[in-house]
């Protein structure tokens, strides 16, 4: 499941011009913190960089972290 989400995020972000925000919102709002860590690891293994380097996520990650904390 983590690998599937990593591939979906890549297709929704780095692979295309612009971003498919719905995919990012779906993955980051529906998955646990542990799963998101596994997604980041899978993303790094497949594409060679961390999700933290995806430009779109620089804006959204703080908001998702807040949601996870609450």
UniProtKB/TrEMBL annotation:
InterPro entries found in the cross-reference section: Annexin_repeat, Annexin_sf
Keyword Ion transport: no
PROSITE patterns, sorted: ANNEXIN_2
Pfam families named among the record's database cross-references: Annexin (PF00191)
Keywords per UniProt: Annexin, Calcium, Calcium/phospholipid-binding, Repeat
Molecular function, one GO term: calcium-dependent phospholipid binding
Any single GO BP term: response to salt stress
One GO CC term on file: cytoplasm
Family: Belongs to the annexin family.
PANTHER family on file: ANNEXIN, ANNEXIN B11
Protein name: Annexin
Source organism of this protein record: Populus alba x Populus x berolinensis
């Amino acid at each position: 499941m983590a690998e599937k989400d990593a591939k979906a995020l890549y297709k929704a972000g780095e692979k295309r011009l612009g971003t498919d925000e719905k995919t990012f919102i779906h993955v980051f709002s529906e998955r646990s913190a542990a799963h998101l860590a596994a997604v980041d690891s899978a993303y790094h293994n497949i594409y060679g960089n961390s999700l933290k380097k995806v430009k779109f996520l620089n804006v959204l990650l703080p908001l998702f972290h807040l949601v996870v904390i609450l």
